[in-house]
Every structure is written in C-alpha cells, then in structure tokens.
Amino acid sequence: MNSTKKQASTTPTAAPRHPVQASRARTLLGRLTLLTALGASGAGAQTTLSHAAPATLAQTTVAQTRTTTTLQQVPAVRFQTADLSKLLLQAPEFGSAAASLLPSALKLDQAGFSKWLQPGNTAQFVTAAQLQANQAAETQRFNVNLQTTSNLLAQRPEFATLLQLAKTAPFEEPVLDVQTKSGPLNVRLMSPAVGLSYAAGTLVNARAEVQRSTTAFNEQNARALNISPAVLQTVNTNAGAAQNGVSETIRQAVTTSFKVNANLVSQIGALLQSEGQGNELDESTAAGCGASSNGIYRAVNFPLRRYLPTVKSQGSRGTCWSFATVSTTETLINKMFGKRVNLSEEDYVANIKINYRTPNGADGDDTRDAVTRADSANYRFAFENAWQYNQSWSRVATETPKNSGVWKYASTCTNYPYAATQCSDTVHQAPSACILVGGKTSCGFQIPQSRSAYRPDASSLHDLWNFDQRDASLFWMALAVRLGTPIMLVHDARYLQPNADGFVADLPYNAVSHKDANGNSVKNGSADVAWWNHVAELVGYVTNDELHAALPSAPSGAGGGYFILKNSWGTCFGDGGYVYLPWNWMNKYSGAALTGLSVKN
Description:
Blueprint: E1 4-7, E2 13-14, H1 28-31, H2 33-36, E3 47-51, E4 76-78, H3 84-88, H4 110-114, E5 121-126, H5 128-151, H6 160-168, E6 175-180, E7 183-188, H7 192-210, H8 214-225, H9 229-243, H10 247-256, H11 264-271, H12 296-299, H13 320-337, H14 345-356, H15 367-376, E8 396-399, E9 407-410, E10 432-437, E11 440-448, E12 455-457, E13 462-463, H16 470-482, E14 487-491, E15 513-515, E16 521-523, E17 534-543, H17 544-550, E18 561-566, E19 578-582, H18 583-589, E20 590-595, E21 598-600
C-alpha cells in the first residue's frame, strides 16, 4: 500500500490526536494483555506523511546531532528548607541571554519557585552561558554532519533526499498518519537534522570499516557480544559468506544457535511486579488491541520475550529515542538483576534537553549521543512514579521563525493530571521560573529528587550496521537478539506498514512518497529511503521454519525470516505494539543497530 503526503500549512501544527485514553485502573486481566489476550482483527496499517514545503536554511540554526562536545553541567541543588532567600544564594546567577533561548515559562516568577518546595523535588539551575554554549554546540554539530554527509553523497546516493530536507526544512518533525485497531493515529517523527546525525555517524563508521578486513569487522562485533573464539571461527566463515551474497548460510547458522528460553508462568508472575510503576500514563491501550493469536509474540518463545517490559506510547511527541533507551534499559535490568522496573521516559528527556540542548528545541534526539552523555554525567534513571510521562495530545508546536530550530509550545499540559507541579510549555516539560534575590537573578527547572539505583553504561555501545556488509550486519543483529542482547534499531518509520497480525511485507521503495524541492509529491526510489526518523527496541529474530512450525499459515518473511520490533506507538498498532520486519526489509530500511548498552547498579 502506498503512502501519500499532505501539504503542511504555515500555521501552528495541532498535536496528533489520541485515539483512546489509557485505562487508569487496569485489572489483572489487563495487566496480562500481551500474554493472554485473544487475537483481534483489524485492517492493515496505512501511512500518510505530512511535511512542510521547502524553505531556506538559516545560517544560525540549532540541531540534534552526534558529535560530542564537553560542556559544564550546572549541579542540581536540593530544596530542603522554606527559607527561599537563603537557599537561592547557592544558585548561580543566570546572566543575559537572547530571547530565542528562553522558554516562555522561564521568567521572573517567585510563585513558580514555590512549587519546587514540595517534598520530592529538586532544582536544576541553568545559566545564560550554558544555554548559549549548548546552542553553539548544536549548530556546530549540524554543520559538521551536513558537510560529512555531503562529501560522501557520491558514494552514498541513498542520502540524497535526507540532504535536501536537511538544507530546506532541517528541524521540522513531520507527522506520520497510521491506522491502528482503535482508529487513526498521528505519530511525530524525528527531524531531518536528527536523521543527518545518524547518517553522518553511520557513514564515518562505514568508511572506517571498509579499510578493515571482514575478519576484523567480525572480531569487533564478537567482542561486543562476548562471543568465545571457538564460536567466532564459525561466525567468520558465515559472515564472510554473507558479504559475498550467500545470506542463506547466515540464516542457517542463526537457526542452529536458536534455543527456546521462556517460561510463561514466570512471565505472568513478573508482570505483576514492576518497581516504580506509575498510573500507566506512558501507555495506551484499548479493547481488542492485545497481541493476536496469529502473531509471533504469542506463538513463538523467542529468548528475550520473558524480560520485556510492557509496550508504551510516546503519544504526540517525537521522543522515540527516550522510549527505545528506557525500554532497552528495563529489559537489561530484568535480565541482569532479575527485577522488573518501570523507569521514567519523561525524566530522561528532561536530563538530555536541559543539560545539553535548549529549552525551545525539537523533540527528537540522537539515541547514541544522548545515552553517551547520560553515562558520562553518571545520570541515574528516575522511576516512572517520580515523574510520569505526558503524552501531550493537545500540544501545539510552532517553529518560529521557520527553519530556526526554535519552537514555541502551547497547551502542553492539557489533561495532564500533574500539570500544576510537573509540566511546562517546553520541550522537556520541566516547570521553570526565575527569581530575583539580593540583586541576583537565578533560573532553573524542577526535576524529581528521587532516583533509582540504575545508570546507563554506554562504554561498550556499538553499531552493528555496516552499509558495505548489509547481510553480514543482519547476521550479527539476528545473532545478538537470539543471544539475549537487545538492539536499538534506527530506521525509516514510513515503511512500518504492518497487517492486523503485525507482519510487514517486503515493501518496495515506491510504497512511500516524498516532496521534491518544488513541493511536488514523488514516489520514493533507492535514493530516498535513508531518512532515519524513528528508533525502537529490536528484541528477536525468527526464521521462516520456526515461524511455520508455530503458525503454519503465517506469511513467509522475505529473505528467510522476521526481526521482532517492540515499538512505542501503543498496543493498538501492529500486534499488541509489536511489528515483524522481514530480512529483506531490514536490508533496505535500517540505519543503525546500537547494541552493547549495559546497566550499572
């Protein structure tokens, strides 16, 4: 099925609509939906992409990109006294900053600071110098990534459309219209600037790998997966064959290493216990949206299934990068420590946006850059019940002026139950205020004081994807998830078009359209698909033989089998929130495969 685009207007873009409201009092049956729900029928998903017309790229722009720049982080200060004047003497003076750097909520308002005096909250102070440094670093990263990708365009023509978008509408976050079992849903994708960040990082990695042998490439991946030298000998043979196009050998190798490693009873017990559980504001479900009896999730015991957290929903915001990182972390915590937890996506977004971006930036971010920064700063995740996610279905976001990277947000907190104490019209949504004490103005944001014991460890984070060895890369990805190592998969979400049971066909390039430089709708070709605008947790791989042993009537996966993707668009999309991607689909539409993330406790 083809996907079309709608011309976006220059007026503020209304937030994507919410098809259903998440249940606030889920019963035991509801808690076990993904394990026991009856299969639900529904139409296959169709996608439509809304995108604005091209415009001129401003020279002083802000972007979320990959290059790391060391910045001074202003420490959080705990409010533990009602003596506000004495307390603020510890805070840094804000200084002077351009109006474009300031969110509307960051203003002189003593009442705003009084909110932070409630138990459980701390303040993250910011300064004008910090915001200006963040903006300068963002601009530099964008320019470096644009130049890197442009220089390699001749060798990588698939980046042509991404480069065009990065030059004409770099920070726009288009809305993808999809059909779900509960009705239409609008999903916000990440901007071309973020896609450019992934592209530049992948191209640099690929260029370095080309200069190395296939054996060296395999050895690096084996170290990332802790594979023994004896196993590596077989891996070298199979992956080397894949580079020469013999992908069947790879799939056979993966098949022989497959072991069923799931226990339904233990899964049910684990689902009843989730430390840090909130009111399920980061979830979205409805009757008939559970996993289908005709889908892989219920039919096949893939190794990571027993460790997976519930499917969540990012709502109207382009925060897939946070959901992918948090879901992967929750999976690893369950696998490493035997504990099911529910961590706060909201707090993780705020940590990155407050400390390393600007309050008026866009939602999206580079997953790899964000988690690397969080690790370097010894960030500890908050639990979901310390700061619950706001799906912001009523939010209106306007980029003013166009292509500036400066966004104005309105109605962000509508219908959010904690609007009075944990929300603001900013990209990170942390309440903010400034106060004048003794001739000094200090500004900051409210964040939860309570923290979990878990910290991300990105020291072994590794990208398994290589343009010049695509089948070999897919081999490593299949091997990783079958060995129990989750992957954060960066891909082009426009091609996520599952049927009612979650299966995605080997879609041709022209299944999706894009706007050319003149604003005309044009069918995609091979040069138009490397716009990586979404990231989600990849959790399994099933060969066609294994699939048909469990589901004889299931469609065969083109190329030999299906990769299992745990998405963040709620349980009504795909098969209870899961989609199944054929080997050949992955070969065409994957952009990065980040694995090796670990957890410190």
